[in-house]
Structures are given as C-alpha cells and as structure tokens.
Amino acid sequence: MAFFSRDYEVFLLLAAPDAPPLWEAAQWLPFAASLDGVVAQARGKASVRSHQYNPKGKPIPFGRLGWDAKSHAKWTHTPQTTEARFMSLEAWAPTWTICEKDDQAPDLFLALANESLLGLAGKTLQFSQRLVCAIATDMGPEAAATLRLSLAQLAAQQEAVIFAHTQRQWGRAAYGGFTGAIQDMLIGGLFQPDDPHARPLDAATFREPWTRMEQA
C-alpha cells in the first residue's frame, strides 16, 4: 500500500468566535486525556510540534514534544502565559519520522490553528479555531468512535459553528507521488480560495464534501 492510499475517518471542528482556546491548558488537558487510549494504540509514540511566537514575532522553541503531561505543560497556555502567541499545532501518532521510515501514513493525526493569527488580525471572524482530526479506518471502529465522541463533546463545549465528518485517503496520486494530503488540509485544503469569513459556511465554501454531525 502506498503511503498516501491509507483510508481515514476525518473530522472538522470550527469553534465559535468566542470559544475558549483549545491551546489553554484548562481546555487541552481534558481533551487530550480523552484521547490517551487511542494515542496509545498507535504503532509508535506520538510527537507534537507547535508554532508559537513571542511579542517580537520570533519563534518560541519548545524542544521535542510528545503526547504526555510534561510536554503538554510546555506548550499549553495558562493565566501566567503572557509572552506566547499560539499559531498552530500538529500531532502525529506515531511520529512523522516513523511514518517516513515505515512508508505508512500515521494512525492518528491532529492539527489545530488559531484563526486570528492566520493573517486575519482585526477581521470579524465566523470561527476562532480550526481543528482537523483523522484516524485510519484500519485502527478499528472502537478507536474511531472514541475520537468521534471526544470531538462531539469538544464541539458542544466550543459551540462549534461546524462539526463535520468525511472519509478519504491520506492523499491523492499525482506526478509520481501524491498531493492534497490530510496534513495540508488545515491551512490550504479546507476552503475555496475566497475568504471563509466573508461568505456563508455552506457546502460551496469547502473544497471537499463534509457531512454535518451532531454535537454531544
């Protein structure tokens, strides 16, 4: 099986404009804990990378991050966090280096972005955060159901304006390799070229078909 041809259940959550940020420790830690069992089922340890910046716009180094309490404490924000501006986060289970070595896409993938730092400062936003989660279908229905329930609960907490699901492969064959990977959906693959905050969040706004889901 080619790296890109693995099948996935993919979930999309767009949080309400005033939803509490998922990068706050009070929000992230319970959500992460609800996924610990699924992450542990992956064929190797998970890795996390977060892009954050100080007030001068310089990247903040976090070193190697995993899916554990010590790592979560390094990058999540608390009331004492004043010098960090969260932009995005990716989590791979197993790590992307193992995926490259195995020539197999991850068992579980998660990507989160802060909408206000995506070149939209000062704009009126229809949603404040975008979250994409994907789990390989061969991980089994129970693992997918656990992820779905965790996200449904999060969608309710964040009063998500969109909570939706689709099924697709990791990528699409192109030019001897692949394109349109799930890892690229968050920033460049979700919406049509127009500003998603300046048009209705209907089917025509998205690049791919999504099925709306009920929140918990």
Provide the low-confidence segments as ranges: none
Q: Roughly what percent helix?
A: 10-25%
**Cα end-to-end separation:** 36 Å
Treating each run of at least 4 consecutive H or I residues as one helix, how many helices? 5
How many beta-strand segments?
Answer: 9
What's the number of structural domains? 1
Explained architecture:
With 216 residues, the chain is of the alpha+beta class. It has one domain (3-212). Helix content is 24%, strand content 26%. It is built from 5 helices and 9 strands, in the order βαβαβαββαβββαβ. It has helices spanning 25-40, 69-75, 96-102, 141-157, 185-189; strands spanning 7-15, 47-53, 85-93, 108-114, 129-136, 162-169, 172-174, 177-179, 211-212. The strands form 2 sheets. A 7-stranded antiparallel beta sheet has the order 2-3-4-5-1-6-9. Strands 7-8 form a two-stranded antiparallel ribbon. β7 (172-174) and β8 form a beta hairpin. The longest helix is centred in the last third of the chain and has 17 residues, at 141-157. The protein is globular and about 45 Å long. The mean pLDDT is 92.
